[in-house]
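step: validate -> pass
step: tokenize input -> pass
step: predict -> running
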Amino acid sequence: MSLQLACMVLIGIACAFGAYRNLVQATRWRWLLVAGQLLGAVLLALTLLPPSMVQAPQTLLVLTPGVDAKQLRDLDAGQLTVALPGVEVAGDWIMHTPDLAAALRTLPRVASLRVLGDGLPGRDHDAVGVRALAFEPSAAPIGFVALDFPAAVDSGVLWRVGGRVGGVPSAHVELLDRAGTKAATGNVDEQGRFQLSAISRVPGTEPWRLRLLDANEAEVDVVSLPLRVRMPAALRGVILAGARDAESKYLRRWALDAGHQIGSEIRLSRGIEQRGESVKLEPASLAEMDLLIVDERAWAGLSAREKQDIGEAIRSGLGVLLRVSAKPSAAVLAEWRELGVNLQASATKDQAQSTDTAAINLGQDRPALAIVDAGLVPLLRAEDGTLLAAWHGVGQGRIGIWLPRDSFRLQLAGQGSRYGTLWSRVFSTLARARGTREPQLPHWARVGERTQVCGLQIGADVIDPAGTQFALLVEPSDAACASWWPSSAGWNRVRDENGTWPVFVHTADEGQSLHRAETREATRQLIEPEIPAWTVATRLPRWPWFLAWLAISAPLWWLQRKLAARA
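step: predict -> pass
step: emit ->
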């Protein structure tokens, strides 16, 4: 039973009891007393539970940081207006509020929002709810408006940073390393886009910087690119080949130089093998293996038992790369098709230049075969979109297909970093997953703004550059997220029982153009032009009903006292 219903029942019982007592009294005032009690009961119920009145919806004008002078001049004093923190505006009709939710609690009739400036910050997105929203942005920001770079890379691997620039014609971008040396430079195209690449070789944290220069070499914008450089995990793998070729030779040499434990076996014919070390394709050895690379001739020489064990190992987490060095036989193609890799004959070989190198036409030397893209994840494409390598998941493991026979030419052309980057991506994508999963760290944290870290264990904390520890309240859910408001710029550390991870916190005034652009884009995602069906029911005030009840109850009380004295 609800509280409202309980109150109504109690008032009804009290009214019925009082009416009964008045009726049994043989006085000429008994009907007046009964009518007064019934009216008093109704007025008391209306005092405790006043009725609601449906009112017309309102539109709220929201001033956000970045609102320009022109937008402020066009404000209407008759418009319901609120200003969020960071907006300096004068006007008696403008309500200053700490956030949008606080304003909406005091204005229940608001059904639509009209936002001016750079848009709503992240804390106010949930407050919009089902309300209609119109966004009128101020002048576009000048500088970096979009950035895409990895938060963590393996040492010795080529990494890229790309993005978009706004409001700076004929601009160019410079990438500076930790010593301030220019590591890469590039021009901004007509759409404002750019892309640079660099290599980080020393494990640790590296504070790279990205500078935007205009046509006169004047600095327009600069942002920090915090990078975590990891030592790649050593993988255990085996290369099986049906004949000696340059591709497998250079691949094995790179894998050993990268710290991987790679065995090799060249099966020249049945019973004649050339081994780098003893290779056994048994369930026990396959369970210890992270990656198996096998070409079509070596696959054809495997026994049925070995193929069955490899299939079971893939479902248990083993990664397998099927490397094509010549046109496979029909039997091999059928067996690979059962593994989810379908190849078909191609009329011509791919002559397109791969996007992974600017000097070598990677994939030019390959069998006249094409990968049938049936739910496969691309691993390497040519510029025309042709698949050169792809993979898909099988159980807990992954199986990939590789067509190029000329990736070793990158090494011969002096592009060892590109070669290492290419095969490092292949190894990390297909190899068996081992080790502790890292939490989802924020890609861009800023002082004073809410930051979220997910995938943490209970009892996690954060340590700022000064060594001060702050406990994190981890939500007991599958995401295991915790909110954090950084107070110190620089490298902070997030720690739980699984390890410690560095997180770079930017100052509040760094990357303002980028921050404004992100806020604008997030607000555009909230735009809802149509006003939903909206009814606002506002409760009437209680005091008129209370005064009416008091005006009825006081004479009744006086009359009952008088009758009681006479009796």
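step: describe -> DSSP finds 14 helices and 32 strands in the chain.
step: cleanup -> pass
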